[in-house]
Amino acid sequence: MQRPPRLQKTALAATRWLGSPQSIIVHTILFALSFLFTIIGLVEFDRMLLVLTTALSLEAIYLALFIQMTVNYTTQTIEAVGEDIEEIQEDVEEIQGDVDEIQKDVDEIQEDVDELQEDVEEINEEETAEEQQERQQKQTLEQIQTDLRKLMDDIERLKK
Q: I need a labelling partner for 22 at 20 to 30 A (CA). Which of 16, 50, 102, 122 fits?
């Protein structure tokens, strides 16, 4: 959003000040002084009312213009914020789509990991079965060797 022009800044400042407690105090003092001047005879009552009415009319006109400028500026600002919100919403939707895709990829990867885990377990089971078979073969060979030695010893004894 671009910076408001100088006149817009003036309108914003004026409406901000005119809606403040200080403004009420200043206006009350000015009205009281106007009537005080007529009471003490510095200004005629008719003249004071004419000047006061004219000043208040001009103030009301400018105040209405400043307020309308402030409303227009606020409306533009709100529209710009609305556009930003729409853009952010679109970005969030895109990010959500990306997150969904990533989740699908993660699910696929998890399935692959599970399959690999199953393959590793099968390989381990096969290795365990092979190891058991090798152990049994080794034991059998050792038993055969032992039996052969006994036989050889028996044959040697018989020969003697």
A: 50
